[in-house]
Input
Amino acid sequence: MIRIVKNGDKRVEKFNARPAFPEVAEKAAFEVLADIRKNGDKAVAKYVRKFEGAKLKPADFLVTDDDFSSLDKSVVKAVKDAHNRVLKFSKASLRQAWSMSTPKGGEAGEFFSPMDRVGVYVPGGTAPLASSSIMTVTLAKAAGVKEIVACTPAGKTGEVNKVLLYALKLAGATEIYRVGGIQAIGMMAFGTKSCRKVQKIAGPGNAFVTAAKRQVYGYVAIDQVAGPSEIAVLTDGSVEPKWIAADLLSQAEHGSGFEKSLCVCTSMSFAEEVKKEVLRQTKELSRREIIERVIDKDGILIVVAKNVKDGLEVVNRFAPEHFEIMTENALQVMKGVRSAGAVFAGAWTPESAGDFVAGPSHVLPTGGAADMFNGLTPDDFRRRHSYVAFTKEDLAQTKATIEKFAEIEGLDAHGRAASIRFE
Output
């Protein structure tokens, strides 16, 4: 059911509550990861067979196919367009090394180095997400990573979707494995004979992949925890209701049934129009049954706020993965955003532009995690190093402070390390 409620209704807060770690996923991840940590490739093959249906030997995990002659030219053109735009944005967004002078002629600052070997997870499931290949691997390549491992489920046939495979190769993946789910996360995190351990794992996935990523944190770094897709749309009635409805449905069709679509508007009549359009358009879509599961689970909510400012606070509390500002003066309204993975400002910026081609990565925090996490960036694949280069005069100026802190904390060797240089 699609509900229309006023801001302040208790159902708004209920809608906001979405657990990132379902118990069933946590339990499954714990058991599978423990087995892979102990038994390596043998366990990976067992779970590929159990969960994906493919009877693969460890020697079959690595994808070697690079024949893309059968791909339609229009598909190749679209993938290249997306890759070029994301690569350009990624290079422009990289943080630059910087330095400042210390009071007595020294120097301090930061510089960055790419990780050596990273892992990227690309979902398969109900749809081969070729776009996720671009939105992850391209960033690692832009950061300068030399070895980029990609894992993706291949289903019963063991064949990776050709478009997805082409996108991975174009983006810069150096190794591609036809392994998905928890078993892919375990293989990359712990390392096996067929796949060496990585330093970091990034990329979206279902609840089981998310639970696995959380549990391998410490063995490897991870980008964030991410679950079912979600969107919030704030509108003042200046944008067509049918456009708003289409945007809400764009995230409801992903497939888990736990997606969330929130519309916040400023009039009851507009809310009714949006609801009518959502129901009408749902009947026309190829993934109608998937969307209806979301609707049946109260995954689409329309909230009527007093004004745009009031509505913005509703969205900030929701902390959505995607936030569309479909209002007049959208860039001005955007200044009040505090919690959102990515923002899409103005009537001509549907969220799908961000999913496929605009430039920033579509790998974003979900489940309210946008309140504390950021979306994936190229800098997530680099290490930050701070540095200090004191002169003798800098150390002399700070020696008394160093010695005092050493005294306070009972660390006399710390103090001596400074004072001994002046004896």
Observations:
- The radius of gyration is 25 Å.
